[in-house]
Amino acid sequence: MADTPREDPATSVSVRGLPDRGRVLCHGFIEAVTFAPASQVAAFTAIVVDHGQPPATARWARAVTAAADASQPADASAAAAPRRRRGTVPKDRLRVVWLGRRRIPGVDAGSELRLEGMVTVRDGLPTMFNPRYEILSGQEEQ
């Protein structure tokens, strides 16, 4: 097989620009983290979203407000949302899993990360296992 030219590794892509498979360098904000219970295998999971994407709570609040203003039940906003075709992969989120870790200091909801690793699709979501990471910023303590 012939080698394919690789992109400059210093250039990071947004979460929406991720390929379905392959090695990438990307950046984004952590939207949520999941801690595994002590009874399960140690795995720390985070959901990463793009820079320009508002937090999930803000999107949810706008959807509820819009539904209330239109005098529709709150369930109608979910029904009006565009549906994904079966078999397509959502590109607005990246699941990051650190196997063997219960917690990573500094990696919390709201933190900005740069990640490098292999992307694959797992359970319908782009996923990266045990990536190299750099914490670019964190939430300020209040």
Describe the structure.
With 142 residues, this protein is of the alpha+beta class. 15% of the residues lie in helices and 35% in strands. It is built from 2 helices and 6 strands. Helix 1 packs across helix 2. The radius of gyration is 17 Å and the shape is globular.
Short descriptors:
15% helix, alpha+beta, 142 residues, globular, 6 strands
What is the helix/strand order?
EEHHEEEE
Distance between the termini: 55 Å
Could you name the ranges where pLDDT drops below 50 across 5 or more consecutive residues? 1-7, 57-86
Q: Which sheet architecture does the biggest sheet show? A: 5 strands, mixed, barrel
Mean pLDDT: 75
The class by helix and strand makeup works out as alpha+beta
Beta-strand content: 25-35%
Physical arrangement of strands within the biggest beta sheet: 1-2-3-5-4
Provide the helix percentage.
10-25%
Shape: globular
Q: Quick one: how many beta strands?
A: 6
Helix count, per DSSP? 2
Backbone CA Rg = 17 Å
Structure, briefly:
It is built from two helices and six strands. The protein is of the alpha+beta class.
